[in-house]
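quick one, 336 residues, struct below
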Amino acid sequence: MAIVKSDAYGHGILRTARTLAQHGVRWFGVATTAEGLLLREGGIEERILVLTAPPVKHLHVLPEHELEVTVSFPEIADAVLECATNTFRVHVKVDTGMGRIGIAPGQAEQIVTRLDRAPHVKIAGLWTHLATAYSDAGFAHEQLERFDHIVAKVGDAAETIHATATGSILRFPEATSWDRSIARAGIGFYGYAGFAEDYGLRPAMTLYSKVTHLKKVTAGTNISYGRTWTADRTTSIATVGAGYADGYPRILSNRAFVSIRGERYPVVGTVCMNMFMVDTGLEHNIAVGDDVMLFGAEEKHGKTGPDARDLATWAETISHEILAGVPAHVPRIYIH
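---
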């Protein structure tokens, strides 16, 4: 199951889903009913699971468009049973320790049994989500044991069993050991593992801007808001046509570097809404209009620059947020 929520982590939900479907993916996971409808309107015919529980008043929309429903609390189960005139395909989500959404383990058997007996309900999945696949293997195994106990009781009622995301696919292969298991892959599809080790994954997205201005400055020159950087020598400063409104976080001020013509240059001064500056030094061959790689996989010059994981480290976040933070107004160019 390819997770394409949040505009496919910033990569463009429709183009991503179409490409993955062409390469054999038969399940998609989305965050909202609206995302599921967007896929259907875009011609995606594969199975689609809405991973969050929809408002009760919107429930009827899902079976009408063959969207599968997450049942994550008893009231949703009740609502499904009350309005199940069309066939509902549901996935019962069990909270084994994530603490976000999900049926309490003590209620799971009763709810699965009720849904299984209903004539217009098909239990398409029984699932959970691991909270510490990236950090605490011991607790992840506790969750898997709790889930396995529920699978042993009512798993036969479900068409599929799924407990993995990218991190657990890589670290806990036993999490796909049940019969009829599905692996939910999110960030891994986009080239990031979530660990220090990259597992050989290759970033799918490269974010570029352009050099829009270039000037020489002398020692003592201040750069950008707040005068947070001052030149300690005569140097050149390139202005880049991107900023925090374009998915380049302000916290990267004086922390990050970019790649221009295959060479790395540090970000200096405060990142602005639509511009930021880099120190290119006096000796360079940079010109206005040159590409600036903000993150991704630089191949034009046979070198790699920063990737989203690097930016995430500097920005004190995770690569997921960097990728999903690239807004829709930034053009996407797809290359096969």
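The radius of gyration is 24 Å.
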